[in-house]
Write a structure and sequence with these properties.
308 residues; six-stranded mixed β-sheet
C-alpha cells in the first residue's frame, strides 16, 4: 500500500502509517530499529531496495531523506515537506517513508525525522553518497547509534579516509570495511592452520581502493609488520600474500566469485569469495549496533602504534 502526502507534517505522516497498517492488518510491533537513509534522487531507488531486502532479516522503519535543491528564491525561503508512505508488500517486512524536503526543512531534516523514529528502538543512519565529513557531528548522525558511510561513493577515497581517521567516533563504520569481512575471516582461519609467524605481507588491489587500504592497515596493526600495497588490474582486492619462515600464505582472487587458498606444504584449495551486494552489507551492519572496534583499529592503526 502506498500513500502520497503533499506539503505535509510529521503528525500527518504518523497518522498515514497507522492508517496503512490498519488497512493491511499489520501491527507496528516486530520492527527492531529505525533506518534513516540520507540520499539524493539518483541513488534513492537502489538504496531503498537494498534496505528493503535487508529488512527481511531486520524488520525496520525506513526513513528516506531526500533534500531537494531549490530552483527559485521562493523555493529557498519556503519550507515544505512531501512524503510517500509505503507499507505491506511495498516496503519489505517493515515500513518505508520517503521524505522530500524543500527550503528550510532541508536545513533541519533532524527535526523532520525525530518525530518519526520508532520509540525505544535503535537508530541507524546510512549515507549511500555525499556523507558529511564528520558523521557523528551531523544533526542526523547525532540521532544514531550506528552511522554507515561508503568510501566507494567518493571521488578521492583515500583522501576522505584520512579525514575519517581524524573524525572517528564510536558507532561510525563504512561499507568499504564491511566488504572485507570474508577476507578477514579467511585470513584468520588460514593463519590458524599455518601456525607460523608472519614476517612480511602484501595486499594486491586496484588503485585507490579503500577496502585494500583498510585491510593493509588492519594487517599492520594485528601482525606488527609493514604491509606492501601492490596495484593490480582488479576488480577490488585481488590477493593477500603473507610471508612466513615456512613459505607464503596466499589468498588469490583475480576475478569471479572463487578464490584460491595456498598454505605452505599443502595443496591449493578453492574458496567462495564473491563480491556481495549492498543489501547483504547493510544486513551485516545491522546485526551489531555497538562500536566497531576493529574498524577503529584499521582506520587509526592504534594497535600498530601501541606495538611500535
Amino acid at each position: 500500500m502506498k500513500i502520497d502526502l503533499t506539503d505535509t507534517t510529521a503528525s500527518k505522516i504518523n497518522k498515514a502509517l497507522v492508517q496503512g497498517r490498519r488497512a493491511i492488518g499489520t501491527p507496528a510491533v516486530g520492527m527492531v530499529l529505525t533506518m534513516v537513509i540520507v540520499t539524493d534522487e539518483e541513488n534513492a531507488y537502489d538504496s531503498i531496495r537494498a534496505a528493503e531486502e535487508a529488512s527481511h532479516e531486520h524488520p525496520s522503519r525506513t526513513l528516506v531523506v531526500i533534500k531537494r535543491h531549490a530552483r527559485t528564491l521562493r523555493d529557498r525561503t519556503t519550507s515544505r515537506l512531501d512524503a510517500e508512505v509505503r507499507v505491506g508488500s511495498e516496503a519489505g517486512t517493515g515500513e518505508t517513508v520517503v521524505l522530500r524536503t524543500y527550503g528550510e526543512a532541508s536545513d533541519h531534516a533532524d527535526s523532520v525525522v525525530l518525530p518519526l523514529l520508532l520509540p525505544d528502538a535503535p537508530v541507524v543512519v546510512w549515507w549511500p553518497v555525499d556523507a558529511p565529513e564528520n558523521p557523528s557531528a551531523d544533526p542526523l548522525g547525532a540521532l544514531a547509534q550506528r552511522r554507515i558511510t561508503d568510501l566507494y561513493a567518493v571521488e578521492r577515497p583515500l583522501q576522505v579516509l584520512e579525514g575519517r581517521t581524524r573524525t572517528y567516533a564510536p558507532g561510525d563504520t563504512d561499507l568499504a570495511w564491511t566488504r572485507l569481512t570474508p577476507w578477514r575471516s579467511m585470513l584468520a582461519a588460514a593463519l590458524d592452520q599455518a601456525r607460523a609467524r608472519v614476517t612480511s605481507a602484501a595486499v594486491e588491489a586496484e588503485a585507490e581502493n579503500p577496502s585494500a587500504e583498510l585491510l593493509a592497515r588492519w594487517l599492520e596493526a594485528r601482525l606488527g609488520v609493514a604491509v606492501e600495497r601492490v596495484v593490480s588490474a582488479g576488480p577490488v582486492v585481488t590477493a593477500v600474500r603473507l610471508g612466513t619462515p615456512n613459505g607464503e600464505v596466499v589468498i588469490d582472487r583475480p576475478e569471479g566469485p572463487l578464490a584460491t587458498l595456498t598454505l605452505p606444504g599443502q595443496p591449493p584449495r578453492t574458496l567462495a569469495l564473491k563480491v556481495r551486494p549492498t543489501s547483504e552489507l547493510i544486513a551485516e551492519e545491522l546485526r551489531r549496533l555497538d562500536a566497531d572496534e576493529m574498524y577503529a583499529v584499521a582506520l587509526r592503526g592504534e594497535a600498530a602504534k601501541e606495538n611500535a
